[in-house]
# Entry
Amino acid sequence: MPQRTRIPFVHLAALALTWLVAACGGDPGGGNTLTVAISSPSATAFTATTITVQVAVTGAPDAVELRRDGDLLVALTPPYTYVWSTAGEAEGSHDLTAVARRGGTQVVSEPRTVVVDRTRPTVAARTPAPGDDNVWVGEPIVVTFSEPVRTATLTPGTVALEVEGGSPVATTLTPGGDGRSVTLTPDGPIAVPATLRLILSDAIADLAGNALVAPPPWSWKLPRWQWMGGTALRVDDGHTIGQARLALDAADRPVTVWLEEVGGTVPPSDVQAAAWDGQAWEGLGGRLNGDDRMGPMYGYQDVAVASDGTVVIAWNTPVYGVPDRLWVHRWDGATWQAIGGGPINDPEVVSAIGRVSLTLDELDRPVVAWSARPGGSAAAGEVRISRWTGSAWADVGAPRRRDPTHVSYNPVLVLDAAGHPVVAWSERLDDTTTYDVFADRWSGSAWVPLGGSLRVGSWTAAFVLDLATGPDGEVHAALQVRVSDDARVAVRRWSEGGGAWVGLGGSLEATPDGQATAATLTIDELGRPLLLWHERVPGDGGGDVGVHRLRRYETAIWRDLQFPVTTTPAYVGLGGDVATSDTGEVFVAAAWPDPDGLRHHLRVYRSNGVP
# Structure
């Protein structure tokens, strides 16, 4: 009987390993392992014409193939290089794989994607829009392409910005992360007004090397003053707006509040507010005064922004048939909340009439100066200052007026460098035709006069219109002054060292026989006063027209900042407001005429850079 040959266990294990290596295309030593890989392209590739494919192989294969989307493209021989012409291929993505065989063994490479693209890229979007004549100098300049382009083709020679009719503008080019856009940032300030033009070259190419279908050069305008949003601010086009106030938040974004006359037989007015979100205006909560409709343009309002961005508004509501009330509201992001839960005043005891002026203290608590009429309509008016303590409204000292027999009204309020309230007001003297201006500062325990009368020289009357403090904390007052029937504006500064009010450049009117009806004042980061006023001037066709004026006090002269002049049938409103950022940009809110000249809307402008 034949004997069965016995194979030791260790020999069986070695034989199994040999079979496994053969199946994997190699041997135990690894010197003859079958491998295949596409070494070039090494990643996703793009082509419009041909592309060279290189395959790396080890292990002495019997055959090597290059497959496209699973189908045989070509059989390869050493050195396993193939120049693939994609002329007959469909545009789009194709997966390439290399296959190596030896005996019964087959190995397959990792796939490589090749995108066949013969379509030239185009410009899909442009910012600013071609022909836009209201572009802010800080608006990003962005070109968006129809597909990703090669970053290396985006150079100052292929993406060129220039001042039309002038010189090239040096820029920094920042490609978008997806390769579909490029942002241009001018390397330095651009003098305005200016027209910029952008030129794109067909040397820009997509990832497959297709040249850009370059559009004609396009241009846009940087005006000296840019109308923010290009939007008329009012709730309804049939309404007209009155006075407007303006404040900036910590990011130098404006917030504005205005009166809007609703219309009707006895047209009531509402208080409205809006904030700039960086791109557009956002209305804040609709009408503020609820069902208490004010008489036509009889209300007054003011606005301030806390350090955390919270908007605070103060206004009075002269409502038909009931005593006037004074409100201070805080915007909580969704609704307006009355600080204190109701009006500051008890309307049955003290009526809130005329102007209200608002500021925030170092703890962002509101302080309000307001015109009060205690004891009924026959009582003389007086100026009161109220502060929110955090839990209640409290008077700051006694009501202000220089003579207890006089009427004081229309106060304005600021804080000095030490955080102490400074209030100025208009006061009607005994003869009822002479008006004066006085100012006091709160010492912490009492009101201390800042000098005497602000009315000087030949002025027969003076009315305070605004107060402002600058970086040095010095107080400036904007006044309307009269010499007989000639109404002008003037600015006076309180000199701490001299203990007196000092005039800045004399009284102002831009046009002979002009009548200044309103003015607002701010101080820029360099301590220079900026004065905005509304002036009624004789019109070319007879009658008066209204214009806005803006000037800055520089080295003993008032320089015209060339704010856009608008003419309209005389509009005796309370004008607008002016504010300036820490970088010197100027913001102006002003009533603007509709094309028909019958109504007005609110516009907010900002200077294109430092004017």
Remarks:
- The two ends are 117 Å apart (CA to CA).
- The chain has three domains: 34-116, 123-223, 226-607.
- Helices lie at 9-23.
- DSSP finds one helix and 45 strands in the chain.
